[in-house]
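CORE FACILITY INTAKE
Project code: CF-77B
Contact: R.S. (postdoc)
Sample description: multi-component assembly, two entities in total
Requested service: structural model of the whole complex
Turnaround: standard
Below are the sequence entries exactly as provided by the requester. Do not edit them.
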Amino acid sequence: MKINGVTIADTFAEAFTMRVARLVITGRTGKWAREAATKLTGFATSVIGCKCEAGIERELTPTETPDGRPGISVLFLTMDKASLPEQLIVRVGQTVLTCPTTACFDGLPDAPDRLAIGKALRVFADGFQASKVIGGKRYWRLPVMEGEFLVEETFGMLKGVGGGNFLILAEDADAALAAAEAAVAAMTGLPGVILPFPGGVVRSGSKVGSKRYKNMVATTNDPFDPTLRAITETALPDGVNSVLEIVLDGTDAPSIEAAMRAGIPAACRPGVNSITAANFGGKLGPHHFHLRKILA
Amino acid sequence: MSDAITLTLAAQPDHVLVADCIAANRFLGLDAKQIAELPVVHGGHVAKLGDFFKVRGERSSVVRIEGDVPRVDAIGAGMAGGELTIEGSVGRDLGLAISGGRIEVRGNAGDNVGGALPGAARGMTGGEIIVRGNAGDEAGARMRRGLVVVMGDGGRAMGEGMIAGTVLVFGKAGPGAGRFLKRGSIVALAAIDRPGTFRYACTYRPPHVGLLLRYLRGRADVAVADRFLTGRYERYSGDLAELGKGEILQWAGD
């Protein structure tokens, strides 16, 4: 299969089941909602080193938020049930609670699994907290120096998908970057999907484990490193001198498929040799995103 | 099973009619005949609901009362769920000690809306009551949880002895509002006669008030002007003769 002369490899991206929460952060202006969301999702690129993966899903208009203010929808994922509330309590407490004018709402109200995030954060108020039940939902009001911070008592948790991906193999670094930027632009704002890496792009894709260091859980994906072409078992076709990866996390597999369907064709630009994907032979992750099937 | 049950006043009561049998969730398991057989007290004598109301529909927790029933007391007492709408005005003790569901009155309501039974420590413990007209004295008194909305004027002692919950009044609130309040909020969009045992804290934009008003606008079709959604409110803490963890929030302008 080819798109704009770019070969789509007959392979699949292998992804994992993760736990996901959606947070809606509002602020007096979109700027302050974004400030909080940016801090909240900082250092959350990969569970390998960050213990969580997070990103901005999309901007919300005032008509889409519970309190009628501009907002940001954030997706937050961890590998297991226990670590999701742990991460959220610490991060919301340090980044949203602290941010002027913001409030924090649950974005998965129908999810039966509930995480007591606001309930845990309320103790910051040192006994001065107050709750309000509005429309059957409980909110906590925390007095702060600016005024009050409002946070929903519980947040929904679903089984999500982490690690959807595709790799852009290009003639040079400039072409790879331009293609990656185009793909990210095409996928930004799609519902149910985040791209957790900087600018949505990864330059240091990894393989499982290490050939040399026993304590390393992930090391450089040497078959795709162009500088190692001559000394390792390379996976790079001739003429490829730079590779960038797009990693996708989402609330469900169809959301990730939809994003890949939008992103991959956008990446098929001049200077791009082929698009492929990372997998582990299908033995590790239950979600397999076959590139050609998605794009058919 | 019907979409809704409609009660239409067939005979005007000569005396006060205590109809505490009318509760939306209670009608869910009853047919029209059984509903008509429910007991009421008329002038101190036991009677049947069907002696005064024509019943249409069955087995539904959505109940509508047609017309003005200002001499009918205790409608919705002890209600735990469902929706009850009264097209006109009602007597006292509307939604007495309710724990859930929603009651809406298109006209006025008498005293003790969402209040407590005589001698009881707690009034309503959940649910929502919306009075589109005026309310009598002691609306929301001794409320433990829930919401009382009065879109007209409130009487004396609104939210007296509240333990928690919210009373929202669009019009004037009479003297004694929030007296002996422990926790909870009285939100006043117009003039309110505050007890001296409330102390000014600050003027700010309380985020939960905007959320509440937006909810009422969307879910209950309550007309709320934008200036109340985004405006500033004066916060008075009280009752300082009690726990002092409650508040009166009075709208202070855009």
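Facility notes:
- The two ends of chain B are 48 Å apart (CA to CA).
- The longest helix of chain B spans residues 207-219.
Invoice: internal transfer
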